[in-house]
Amino acid sequence: MSEADTPPEKTTVNIRMTETFLADVDGTWKELGYNSRSEFIRDVLRDAVKHPDFDRADLKAMLASEVDIQEGRTSSSDEVKDEYDLGDGATDDE
Predict the structure, then answer these.
(1) What is the 3-state secondary structure (H, E, C) of 11-56?
(2) H-run or E-run covering 58
(3) Tell me, what's the pLDDT at 38?
(4) Do 46 and 31 form a contact (C-beta atoms < 8 A)?
(5) What is the pLDDT of residues 58-71, one digit of tens each?
(6) Are 87 and 81 in contact (CB under 8 A)?
(7) Do 26 and 37 touch, CB atoms closer than 8 A?
(8) How far apart (Å, rounded) are the C-alpha atoms in residues 56 and 60?
(9) How many C-beta atoms lie closer than 10 Å to residue 29's C-beta?
(10) 29 with 37: CB under 8 angstroms?
(11) Does the structure show a pLDDT above 80 at 93?
(12) pLDDT tier at 76 (50, 70, 90 boundaries)?
């Protein structure tokens, strides 16, 4: 096996958290179908490193939008234009 085929060596990292939070983490990785707590935590950390500008507010907005879509609370582009008086692109000066 060449060096390119050899997986990188892994290092163990210890973290401290409350039992309650650990129970939440364990419930989450199992619910999401991960094979282990470590696999889940690696994915979460990888996402945080690769997408540092994506934050909790973005996630909440995406989730709220998804709920709106699932519950049929959507508007067409024409409805939005009418609601905000955007019309057909004409300005008030015309």
Answers:
(1) CCCCCCCCHHHHHHHHHHHHHCCCCCHHHHHHHHHHHHHHCCCCCH
(2) helix 56-70
(3) 94
(4) no
(5) 888 888 888 888 89
(6) yes
(7) yes
(8) 6
(9) 19
(10) yes
(11) no
(12) confident
- Tell me phi and psi for residue 22, to 5 degrees: -60, -40
Whether the per-residue pLDDT at 49 is higher than 70: the answer is: yes
> What is the mean predicted confidence (pLDDT) over 17-39?
96
pTM: 0.54
d(CA 18, CA 58): 26
Which three-class secondary structure state does DSSP give residue 63?
helix
Q: Which of 69, 86, 68 is nearest to 77 (CA)?
A: 86
Q: Confirm if 30 and 22 have CB atoms less than 8 A apart.
A: no
Contacts of 37 (CB under 8 A, 6+ apart): 25, 26, 29
CA distance 86 to 83: 8
